[in-house]
Amino acid sequence: MSSSCGAPDQAAPIAGAEGQTVLSGRVLSGEAPVGGAFVRLLDGNGDFTGEVVSSPDGEFRFYAAPGTWTVRALHRTGNGEASVQADGPGVHEVAVAVA
Amino acid sequence: MSRENVLVSAQWAEDNLETPGVVFVEVDEDTSAYETGHIPGAVKVDWKNELQDPVRRDFVDRAGFEKLLSEKGIANDDLVVLYGGNNNWFAAYAYWYFKLYGHETVKLLDGGRKKWELDGRPLSQDVVKRDETQYTAQEQNLKLRAFRDEVVDAIGTKNLVDVRSPDEFSGKLLAPAHLPQESAQRPGHVPSAINVPWAKAANEDGTFKSDDELREIYKEAGIDEAKATIAYCRIGERSSHTWFALHELLGYEDVKNYDGSWTEYGSLVGVPVETGTGKE
């Protein structure tokens, strides 16, 4: 995958992330995971940074940098967003509800 | 250049799935997406294994492009409608290839796979096999393609549009945020480049913004419409999206895509590199 722009499998274990700031989470509708949602990462200014498609279990992840981020999910059943504060390297969890 | 000549809407596409002479082609960054369901009747082109030379860092050559399109069952007079995931990044890249090799009637599905899925339109897993054709390509139209020396010469003279994210432009990140960080030897951007992330040209649902909105975005960012323009990103696919907006939608005459992009430029020895926002 290294030379590809294709995002890695969104459900695979987070490998090689040492020292990186990873935003990881799930898209949910109520309690149910939402796969196939378009998950967009917006920076502190609301500008688009990246987009992935959630796994069948609703999982997604971004390799970002420390800062304040908004994760916005679009799905044919509804949209939603959540903000996440990443103070430093590590895995930061975030859940996004769509309705 | 009018929008109808280069884009089709999802509704037009659904209404023309079985129209003779119209071929839908899916090109994805995730090359397995097609198998999970595609627009009914669409064939798949793998941007990596089918559009790239297997050995050198370059495109398939003219003969290779002819062979590929013949095998896919695409004829010279077919209207090719390209679409894909990730806001049409690789579909726009393929569009640029089709134009490079002189295919006259090619359009992008506005919004690509995302808009199609958000609309809840039909997807199919049926195997698509089209009869082989005898496709004839032209020599590459190098008016559309920039190489590294031309980029160095363009510093301070032409519009250089870096379409990566602000953090990639400034040198904070080496690759988009949804990818592991690996790329060129040095982070940063080509001096004098302006940073207009590709996504500025797209709505949330993946469709292109209106011509008026696009013109305003690039004008505000500092594009001089009287000058030639070179767009680049990391590997040349996001910049194809912006090339499409500038050349195909807005009709700017001299716009090239630098497909070597930052993975080439940021590894060159001895060329000028700038970091920071470019606005200090």
UniProtKB/TrEMBL annotation, chain A:
It comes from the Bacteria. It comes from Kibdelosporangium persicum. This is DUF1416 domain-containing protein. Pfam families: DUF1416 (PF07210).
TrEMBL record, chain B:
InterPro entries: Rhodanese-like_dom, Rhodanese-like_dom_sf, Thiosulfate_sulfurtransferase, Thiosulphate_STrfase_CS. Keywords: Repeat, Transferase. Signal peptide: none annotated. It comes from the Bacteria. Gene3D superfamilies: Rhodanese-like domain. CDD domains: TST_Repeat_1, TST_Repeat_2. It catalyses: thiosulfate + hydrogen cyanide = thiocyanate + sulfite + 2 H(+). Residues 18-125, 154-274 form the Rhodanese domain. PANTHER family: THIOSULFATE SULFURTRANSFERASE. This is Sulfurtransferase.
